[in-house]
Amino acid sequence: MFLYPLCLSALLFLETVFAAPTADIPTPVLLPEVVVVSPSKYPQPTTNEFKYSGFDPNNEKDKGDQFIIHSAFRPFADILGATFVAIGDTSDVTIDTWFPPTVKRAGKKDQDRRGYVRGVFARMFKFPSSPAERIADMVANSQDYAKECDPKKHTKAYLTRDTGHIHICEHGLAQPMIADKDNCNSLGDKVSKAMRSLSGTLIHEFMHWNEIGDKALDFVGHIGDAAYNPAGCMRLGNNPDEGENQKAFRNADSYR
């Protein structure tokens, strides 16, 4: 498509050179090139915040959606910083809820879950204070570019694993913010959907990106979706079948 103006210009030039002297030669008209708007940063971005594409600053809906996504990313460093602290504290048994004790690898020594999970999170976070630089290479798109948002399935978001492009669906945008959960009492005393937040959805989707999931889990493959929601992830990590519980290490929802 981008070659068309050049080809047209060349054709008009040749007609001018070889036309008869008496010919009524039209004035060549150059077609304008298509302007591609590059992804841009949020006006006041958080450290290493991803870029945004297709959000019209003059459209109130786009401005509102972009602000929601930006607001969900703002506590990213605090969330992952707290995760690192919990992983390092052997008296904190939170990680035991979601992952089996060791990572099993054929022909290799077993690895403790704490060290392994910490390595996965280190792909997206620089302890103690900021998201990793690679997060800034990701792009949040305003359009449902892959047509994956399905209201009937309550699709929250999706990510293209090789490019790091992400789209947050309407159902995802409607989720609560971490800041709205002012204390742990609102979560109840049971594993439930009360833990959901848009920040958690972002972490889930980031795990699918090759630069995070594939590099962290080079021996077991891409981080996919073996189970969803807190209850499903808890059952997966505590399944007595080793072939099943090992899937927790490559399950995106287990990390959020």
TrEMBL record:
Key words of the record: Signal
InterPro entries cross-referenced by the UniProt entry: Lys_MEP (IPR029463), MetalloPept_cat_dom_sf (IPR024079)
Gene3D superfamilies: Collagenase (Catalytic Domain) (3.40.390.10)
Keyword Signal among record annotations: yes
Region (Disordered): 237-256
Signal peptide limits: 1-19
GO MF terms, alphabetically ordered: metalloendopeptidase activity
Domain Lysine-specific metallo-endopeptidase span(s) in chain numbering: 94-255
Protein name: Lysine-specific metallo-endopeptidase domain-containing protein
Source organism of this protein record: Tothia fuscella
